[in-house]
Amino acid sequence: MSQETVTEIFSHELPATQWDPKKKAIEEAKIQVAMIGFCGCWGCHLSFLDMDENILGLLEKVTITRSSFTDLKRIPHHCTIGFIEGGIANDENIEVLEHYRENCDILISVGACAVWGGTPAMRNVVPLEECLREAYVDSVTAVSGAKKTIPYHEDIPKITNKVLPCHEVVKMDYFIPGCPPDGQAIYKVLDDLVNGREVDLPTEMNRYD
Amino acid sequence: MSRKLIIDPVSKIEGHGKVVVMMDDNNQVTDAKLHVVEFRGFEKFIQGHPYWEAPMLLQRICGICFVSHHLCGAKALDDMVGVGYSTGTPMLPTPEKVRRLAHYAQQLQSHVTAYFYCIVPDMLFGMDAAPQQRNVVGLVEADPELVKRVVALRKWGQEGIKSVLGKRMHGINSIPGGVNQNLSQEARDRLVNGEDGLISLDQVIDYAQDGLKVFKDFHDKNRAEVDAFAEVPALNMCLVDEKGNVDYYHGKMRIIDKDKNIIEELDYHDYLDYFSEATEEWSYMKFPFLKAHGREAGSVRVGPLARVNVTKSYDDSCPLAKAALEEFHDYTKGKANDMTLHTNWARAIEILHSAEQMKVLLNDPDLQKEDLILTPVDNAWTGEGVGVVEAPRGTLLHHYRANKEGNITFANLVVATTQNNTVMNRTVRSVADSYLGGKEQAEITEGLMNAIEVGIRAYDPCLSCATHAMGQMPLVVKVLGADGKMIDEKYRCAS
Hints:
The structure holds two protein chains of two kinds. Chain A is of the alpha/beta class. Chain A has a domain at 28-122 and 162-199: NADH:ubiquinone oxidoreductase-like, 20kDa subunit (Rossmann fold). Chain A has seven helices and eight strands, in the order βαβααβββαβααββα. A five-stranded parallel beta sheet of chain A has the order 3-2-4-6-8, sandwiched between helices. Chain A has a two-stranded antiparallel sheet with strand order 5-7. The model of chain A has no long low-confidence stretch (mean pLDDT 92). Chain B has a single domain, classed as Orthogonal Bundle (Cytochrome-c3 Hydrogenase, chain B). The longest helix of chain B has 33 residues, at 93-125. Chain B has helices at 42-45, 54-57, 66-81, 93-125, 136-142, 144-165, 185-193, 201-207, 210-221, 223-228, 271-274, 304-310, 319-331, 342-362, 416-419, 421-436, 446-457, and strands at 2-7, 17-23, 29-36, 174-175, 178-179, 235-240, 252-256, 262-266, 275-278, 287-290, 300-301, 384-391, 394-402, 408-414, 477-480, 486-490. Chain B is globular, with a radius of gyration of 23 Å. Chain B has a four-stranded mixed beta sheet with strand order 8-7-6-11. In chain B, 40% of the residues lie in helices and 17% in strands. In chain B, helix 3 runs antiparallel to helix 4 (93-125). Mean pLDDT of chain B is 92; it is low at 470-477 and 491-495. At the A-B interface, strand 1, helix 1, helix 2, helix 3 and strand 5 of A face strand 1, strand 2, strand 3, helix 1 and helix 4 of B.
């Protein structure tokens, strides 16, 4: 069997249109924030948008680098703040969280999933084999007569046995609880950090549902 | 030498996806796939929980269409306790209207978020603009007034949800047989008059037209490219009312072909007779299709484009959306529209449709009435229920069974993004062929690769929703904690 050589090329390594140098200078002078969602529902990212008009003032002081709101696929340079949603559920999540730890001064666990695993961690009490059987072997919509296929491929990550909170993988600096936290609670923490104040999230702004 | 071009991660979407395009020595695309790279497992771990927890827990599948999951679950529970549509018992007017209000408010905020934060930057700056600019930060810099309007519109939609669910996200309103609160007069007046930091309903209707203006300007300037971009065939499916027009909360599932012939129409309680889901090794997302038509021909498109294709007309109570829909239909002269980027046109129409439907409900005194719940008669418990709604991304289905004690024994969810799996992969292939096919490696840029993502974003895929199912547990990988100790070990199950 001949082994074919395949060259792997990532889109973010290809030649791209250059950023206007004036805009680049303005954005790079701001506080750099990287964001990511792991095993969650994207709700904490939307709660970030739920700070409403405060986002306009915040974006005068900070810029967003890698995030699901931008097309930057990797953290471009060292960042001050890493905003982390979701628990850790596969090997790729672990690598990326470690990368955020290495490249951000401050990491914040935002929301129940990042803080303690959240709803997806309910799968931690279910034996794996039962889960597999449910989804792909005994599924009521499985194609009758077809070979039972379980996803397993070099282009998809490997799943961890259990969903982990972020602080069980790397050190996390701050925690904002809630499913999701209110947008104004997220704003309060970011505003404190951006203005060099000690983070002080009043109890009445925390939520646990 | 053959090449493997990788987009990892696909960005400006919800959830985790990756695209791999294979090209051969002759610069031809030999394969192009969207891989969904996450999984969660709601269908399994909900089992054993009390049935009434389902609408609360399962809305955690998604942070942008949680109301749809909540209502889908609620409709399944209505069936289960014996007061649902399947029993022939009509829902009381107030709870049904309260549920609809929350659903339209969610569609407004969901579409506004996806459209303006994820899709519009590619239109305004160009698919091949600097990647650092094609986002909301670039948008604030380029058009701060537009962003202020978007923020205000999104806020109003979220507050509409909060006014009945108690929270902007993952709140509680629906309970088996009805709702736990109506829309108070105070909350109604705030939404209509725009008090306490909100814009007024009139401003909402005005701002809700911004999306259409942005699309039309973009389309006028780039007509040939927009129309030729990934024109991919698929059947179109959505829930319809008795007139055959979209109903986002309830109806029959209708499937039409290119000539808008109805090829299937079903009561969603019978979905198992009509749909199967195929699985591939390379994605955690399944591939549903109509059994009678086979996997290739029987794959459906759902979501905004499918809904405007199926719908003949909107109600006269939504005149602006109705006129916009007529213009959309005229463009393809009565045929179903398969042009992927026209999904964004459809989404902009639906932003306006949601706002106008909310206007109707906010002026309906039934929303303040007190008759909130239908109590089942004795022995009405059926122990099984199916709910379907039109979520922002398309037709969403929840199906549960529970035992006599009321604990869930089975759950099956078929979500919109999963229905779109095949048509999204057709789109990825089409864009890869037209934008990358025939090009030497030196000619391929980041901007050309972004064209593939622009095609995916048109579906506004929610890969969080699509990966509720349990997936493979593979190979041994050790997970070390912050202190270097092993805290988890992964292994491959025998399959």
